[in-house]
Amino acid sequence: MAKKVPLRQCTGCKTSKAKSELIRVIKTPEDEICLDKTGRLNGRGAYICPDKSCLEKAVKSKGLERALKCEIPKEIYDTLLKELS
Protein backbone atom coordinates (compact mmCIF):
# COMPACT_ATOMS: atom_id res chain seq x y z
CA MET A 1 0.00 0.00 0.00
CA ALA A 2 1.35 3.44 -0.94
CA LYS A 3 2.17 5.84 1.88
CA LYS A 4 -0.26 8.75 2.19
CA VAL A 5 1.35 12.14 1.45
CA PRO A 6 0.06 14.96 3.69
CA LEU A 7 -1.28 17.85 1.60
CA ARG A 8 -1.39 21.47 2.73
CA GLN A 9 -2.87 24.56 1.08
CA CYS A 10 -0.68 27.53 0.19
CA THR A 11 -2.02 30.73 1.78
CA GLY A 12 -1.00 32.67 -1.36
CA CYS A 13 -2.17 30.74 -4.44
CA LYS A 14 -4.63 28.43 -2.60
CA THR A 15 -3.35 25.27 -4.31
CA SER A 16 -2.86 22.07 -2.34
CA LYS A 17 0.63 20.60 -2.47
CA ALA A 18 2.66 18.05 -0.56
CA LYS A 19 3.64 19.38 2.87
CA SER A 20 7.34 18.90 2.03
CA GLU A 21 7.11 21.29 -0.96
CA LEU A 22 5.87 24.21 1.14
CA ILE A 23 7.45 26.55 3.69
CA ARG A 24 5.81 26.52 7.14
CA VAL A 25 5.35 29.73 9.08
CA ILE A 26 4.29 29.27 12.70
CA LYS A 27 2.92 31.26 15.60
CA THR A 28 4.40 29.76 18.76
CA PRO A 29 2.46 29.49 22.03
CA GLU A 30 4.49 32.57 23.12
CA ASP A 31 2.94 34.52 20.18
CA GLU A 32 6.23 34.64 18.29
CA ILE A 33 6.13 34.32 14.48
CA CYS A 34 8.94 32.33 12.87
CA LEU A 35 9.84 30.02 10.00
CA ASP A 36 9.70 26.32 10.76
CA LYS A 37 12.30 24.58 8.60
CA THR A 38 11.76 21.16 10.25
CA GLY A 39 7.96 21.18 10.09
CA ARG A 40 7.89 19.85 13.65
CA LEU A 41 7.82 22.95 15.88
CA ASN A 42 4.89 23.51 18.23
CA GLY A 43 2.38 26.15 17.30
CA ARG A 44 -0.21 27.19 14.76
CA GLY A 45 1.13 26.72 11.23
CA ALA A 46 0.44 28.24 7.85
CA TYR A 47 2.01 27.14 4.59
CA ILE A 48 3.30 29.05 1.60
CA CYS A 49 4.88 28.00 -1.72
CA PRO A 50 8.60 28.75 -2.09
CA ASP A 51 7.68 31.33 -4.73
CA LYS A 52 7.79 35.14 -4.61
CA SER A 53 4.45 35.56 -6.40
CA CYS A 54 2.71 33.38 -3.79
CA LEU A 55 4.21 35.43 -0.97
CA GLU A 56 3.04 38.65 -2.66
CA LYS A 57 -0.48 37.21 -3.01
CA ALA A 58 -0.47 36.13 0.66
CA VAL A 59 0.64 39.62 1.77
CA LYS A 60 -1.99 41.31 -0.41
CA SER A 61 -4.86 39.05 0.69
CA LYS A 62 -3.61 38.87 4.31
CA GLY A 63 -3.72 35.07 3.93
CA LEU A 64 -0.94 34.40 6.44
CA GLU A 65 -2.47 36.78 8.98
CA ARG A 66 -5.84 35.04 8.65
CA ALA A 67 -4.30 31.58 8.93
CA LEU A 68 -2.24 32.47 12.01
CA LYS A 69 -5.03 34.63 13.49
CA CYS A 70 -2.71 37.57 14.30
CA GLU A 71 -0.90 40.59 12.87
CA ILE A 72 2.37 39.76 11.14
CA PRO A 73 5.26 42.23 11.45
CA LYS A 74 6.94 43.45 8.26
CA GLU A 75 10.23 41.85 9.39
CA ILE A 76 8.72 38.38 9.02
CA TYR A 77 7.71 39.12 5.42
CA ASP A 78 11.26 40.45 4.80
CA THR A 79 12.74 37.24 6.23
CA LEU A 80 10.44 35.17 4.01
CA LEU A 81 11.51 37.18 0.95
CA LYS A 82 15.18 36.52 1.77
CA GLU A 83 14.44 32.80 2.14
CA LEU A 84 12.81 32.70 -1.30
CA SER A 85 15.54 34.52 -3.21
Describe the structure.
A 3-stranded antiparallel β-sheet has the order 4-3-5. Strands 1-2 form a two-stranded antiparallel sheet. It has one domain: Hypothetical Cytosolic Protein, Chain: A (2-Layer Sandwich), CATH 3.30.1230.10. It is 32% helix and 24% strand. It is an alpha+beta fold.
Topology record:
Layout (H helix, E strand, L loop, with lengths): L6 E3 L6 E3 L4 E5 L5 E4 L7 E5 L3 H10 L1 H6 L5 H11 L1
Antiparallel strand pairs: 1-2, 3-4, 3-5
Poorly predicted runs of 5 or more residues: none
User: Largest beta sheet, briefly?
Assistant: 3 strands, antiparallel
**CATH-defined fold name:** Hypothetical Cytosolic Protein, Chain: A
Strand order of the largest sheet: 4-3-5
Sketch the topology as an H/E string, one letter per element.
EEEEEHHH
How much is the radius of gyration in Å? 12 Å
Distance between the termini: 38 Å
Tally of structural domains: 1
| Number of distinct beta strands | 5
CATH superfamily: YlxR-like
Coarse morphology: globular
